[in-house]
Amino acid sequence: MEELLSKLKASVIEGDEDKVRSLVEEGLSTGQGPRVLLEGAMMPAMEEIGSRFASGEAYIPELIVAAYAMEAGMEALKPRMAGDDSGGGKVVLGTVAGDIHSIGKNLVRMCLEGAGFDVVDIGEDLKTEKFVEAYREHQPRILGLSALLSSTMLHMREVIEAVRAVDPAAVVMVGGAPVAQEFADEIGASGYAPNAFEAAIVARELS
Amino acid sequence: MNGRERMLEAFARREPDRVPVWEMAFNEESIIKLASFFTDDLPPMKFAQQMTPEEKIKLLNCLFTIVRELELDGLSSLALLNTEPAGEDLVKDGWGRLLRVSEEGEATAVGGPVSSPADLDSLEPYHPQQAELLVLMASKGNFGDEIAQVFVQPGPFRESWTFLGSMEKLLFYYIKDPGFVHALARLATDFILEVVDMAVELGADIIGLDGDLAFSQTTLMAPAQYNEYILPYHKEITARVHEHGRLIFKHSDGNMWPIMDGIVEAGFDGFHPVQPQCMDIGEVKAKYGDRLCILGNIDCMHLLPFGTEEEVERSVKETIAAAAPGGGYVISSSNSIHPGVKPENYLAMVKAARKYGDYPITIGA
What integer pLDDT is reported at residue B282 of this predicted model? Predict the structure, then answer.
């Protein structure tokens, strides 16, 4: 079992989707619970790639292939995880009006899914009303706002105000290249992370 | 000295008469707001895509008025590739790239003509047309050699990922299919070289190679990946520009430290915009000031949108003290004058650049 878990962890880190899928299936077929595979191998793999990323040993390409491999593993695990509440809850994620960039948001989505969140990705270039609508519909634990252009990050304040008018306790995370902690504080965001992996960690803390 | 001479002198890393002032881009709203300080002949406040041809000409004239009134030393233009409508908010360019038109005026590829290596065989390369460089021609026609004509073109990384319609896909193939990444870069570079030749023929003095390679924390790719997938193509492009006797700088937001040696090795003459949240301009100057002209650094994320005019003046003074002595510095914002920037703060930035930017620089760092 230990060997399978360590192989599974290594395969997620290497971004080998096929191997991850087959190791997950092998684990499940030998009677391992999905939580053992997730918490014993896949999450530690994401943590490992995240710390390699933070220390400059890994870059976005490595993060992307690992996130894809993680996603492949989660897909294989999902049918066996029904009713299991080990996930972090629901997150609604979108890019604010005027911004059609999606890479930052997509990386955050991959990492949040990897961290067990149920992510509703509502897309890019969204007007404030769309966020409010999605918040009402999905009642997420966290609303995530992304912006890549400094010209569009100003819309984040507007979204936070509109969503808090609906639910004063709304938890809103912000991120994206032009966003910094001081800006996040200024607009009243509940959380900020400078990269996708840390977004998953902050989301875990906030959820 | 006129603006062109001033910019070229700075690019040669010598001291001109004063620190040149230039911007890589202004958005429609910023142009209209700034021009309103100098003229009443303004187009309606809307996005260029929604303007009539007459309104677009008015917008361009407003930009020229700003350059003239503020005595900017260079003007940036870019190729506006022909597109045809392809659905709501979508247009398609000559490569078959689907671009989503944003209200902010920046169109970004959301779908590409290539999704796998097999698609490359049937892809018909698109060749640029002179009419697509209309803004450069208009600027050259208006200003001639009075100011530097800066032509901004996406680099091989950005062109490559737009063929796929997604940056993640390209970065995914960095690990999964190196041959495919090179094939895309080849296609992109051949196109860029054609555009560069045409821009030079139409009067460009300086080429700016656009397309971010970094974000706030670090580069998008490892230094080894930059060396493998981008550097050889950057070298080809800088060599071509230098054959024409012109200059070229690399633009990238974010923390570019991991690949700065590569930017020098690639043969770039300058680096823009030294995003102050990620890179210290004094350090960049100390380490690369003898090989690169440095452009930018006045914070447009926080200072220009939210700061006071006094804070802007202080930042300009400090930046000039750190980067301008000895030459090789062009002042600009840390990206562009976007709609969030207070026009008064931009005017304060230009004013302060004139107040502290005369050579020899007498203010201490």
Answer: 97
B98 is a domain residue:
no
How far does the CA of residue A32 sit from the closest CA of chain B (Å)? 30
CB nearest to B168's CB, from A99, A106, A154:
A106
CATH code, A2-80: 1.10.1240.10
Q: Across all residues in chain B, what is the average pLDDT?
A: 94
B97 part of a folded domain: no
pLDDT digits (tens, 9 = 90+) for B261-288: 999 999 999 999 999 989 999 999 999 9
Read off the CATH number of the domain in which B238 is found.
Answer: 3.20.20.210
* Among chain A residues, CA nearest to B335: A150
Q: What is the pLDDT of residue A46?
A: 81
Note the pTM of the prediction, 2 decimals.
0.89
Q: Which element (helix H / strand E) includes A117?
A: strand A117-126
Residues spanned by the domain of B20 = 3-82+112-356
All residue ranges of chain B with pLDDT < 70 are 102-106, 365
Interface of B with A (CB under 8 A): 27, 100, 102-104, 106, 108, 110, 166-168, 171-172, 174-176, 212, 215-222, 225, 253-254, 258, 277, 300-302, 305, 335-336, 338-340
- Hey, is the C-beta of A44 within 8 angstroms of any chain B C-beta? no
CATH number of A89-206: 3.40.50.280
Q: Determine the residue of chain A that is closest to B173 in CA distance.
A: A61
Give which of B29, B161, B166, B172 to mutate to test A binding, by max A Cβ within 10 Å: B172
Q: Is residue B206 part of a domain?
A: yes
Residue A85: C-alpha distances to residues A90, A118, A140, B84 (Å): 11, 11, 15, 49
CA distance A197 to chain B (A): 12
- State the pLDDT at residue A50: 78
Q: For the segment A10-27, what is each residue's pLDDT rounded down to a tens digit?
A: 999 999 999 999 999 999
